[in-house]
Amino acid sequence: MTDIQINIKNKTYPTATQASISNFKLALKSNEFICLVGPSGCGKTTLLNIIASLDKDYDGEILVGQQHAYPKIGYIFQNPRLLPWRTVRENIELVLNEPQPSEIIDELLEVMQLTSVQQAYPERLSLGMSRRVAIIRAFAVDPEVLLMDEPFVSLDAPTARQARELLLKLWQQRPHTVLFVTHDLREAIALADRLVFLSSSPMQVISEITIPIPRQERHNESAIETFRQQLLLNHPEIKQLL
Known about the structure:
By secondary structure, the protein is α/β, with parallel strands linked by helices. Helices cover 31% and strands 22% of the residues.
């Protein structure tokens, strides 16, 4: 995997009176899990779309290593976007340019606890299960960067917790560079190597904070809450972003 540099000097929509993103710089280290936290409407989804080359109308550059290029992307949206006329397994296989050995998909399904529903159609799945299918589909393409736009929003707390735990299990088995958008600071602390706090429009980086809690202790809600309180106390500028 290769380090990636993102430098967006300006992103302004044609009908807007001010820039959506301005003087934005972010370095992504290989296989790092980064959570982006910022107020609604600040431009987080716009940023993900630029990285995914879905939006090329901006002034700036993306460097993969030292080359101007867009990284290979796996994109997980808030809506799982599964094709209703295809089974779980077929939805996963659809994104692959070349057929993957069946063992790889079998392994992904097993890790995400979906083996028993692999021949089911999306209408038979819960929202939490559908989002796990979307995660598998993104990992299956073996991306350089995995973009996740609030993938667990609107899930109840136990389902979201299970989804986070399964995501981390899969990520630890198959490390990828991850950019994960969330409004939930506890979720961000539980998942991230590094937190990146973003301002309102024009979006800029306000703070970057490394999480010191060992991975094996991230299941401890008390440890996460203690760190959250310390974070808000030591960085009062963050409160207005939540």
